[in-house]
Amino acid sequence: xxxxxxxxxxPDRTDVFALGEKRLAQLKTEGRxxxxxxxxxxxxxxxxxxxxxxxxxxDATPALMADFRDYLLEKMGNSRNTVCENLKIIGALLTExxxxxxxxxxxGVTREYSERTYLLDNELAQMMALxxxxxxxxxxxxxxxxxxxxxxLRISDLLQLHWSDVSDGFIRIRMQKTKRKIEVxxxxxxxxxxxxxxxxxxxxxxxxxxxxxxxPPLEGEFSHxxxxxxxxxxxxxxxxxxxxxxxxxxxxxxxxARHTFATMLINKGASIYDVKELLGHCDVKVTxxxxxxxxxxxxxxxxLLE
Length: 306
Known about the structure:
Blueprint: H1 4-7, H2 16-30, H3 33-49, H4 62-75, H5 80-96, H6 121-129, H7 137-151, H8 155-159, E1 166-167, E2 170-174, E3 181-185, H9 188-195, H10 223-245, H11 254-267, H12 272-279, H13 284-287, H14 291-303
Antiparallel strand pairs: 1-2, 2-3
Helix pairs in contact: 2-3, 3-5, 7-10, 7-11
């Protein structure tokens, strides 16, 4: 029997790369640099895999996506977590194109849990006790790291923190990543660190930490976001030097400070939902990476009954 419904249906000749270009243009308009950069990177990988040939949506079958998965893992040496993210981006493009079933689902690539690095109270104290030249990049980087450990703010938000964002014992900002408004209480020790940077020339619109001011201006698209990336990379390098001088043999980065903040809170009895709000996560599922710490905390509390 002839299938009249599909007899005159035109095959889908929409090209995945054309969809990708539209997506990149949209992300550029929205100013979402991180997502733009990740999407552009995976499209380049797909183009290399295809040898520069186009890819019609109808040809993006589960078998082809499985082969692309293997290419990423074996030829490009990407981690399973990176491959998972890459397939998620391609899958989103195909879903937006109207495919009935996402061919990137069910390919057997799951995220690997990696142990989160964090500092103990005494290790952070070691870093702060280290004598560094006041106003040096090492000194400023250490102070930013400390403030991040005690506020949980992302480095992109701390680098752009203005004096007008701090008042009445709180930091109030709209986060760079999620665009959510957040209000974070600050401790006396954080207040003391911030005061180091207030001068007679400080204005409400001035950056508190001067690292961005020290970078030369960039031209082209996403110039501000690229300066943030450059400042973060430099800060991460400085933090590693500080840690080494303090005798701390952990691979530190600015994100370790966020993990340190969450870990310290949970160890002191905070709930996952408390941590979610203070970290500014939109969904508690993101905060669930700290669930194992909650389990450890519960075990410690129960042991108090022995």
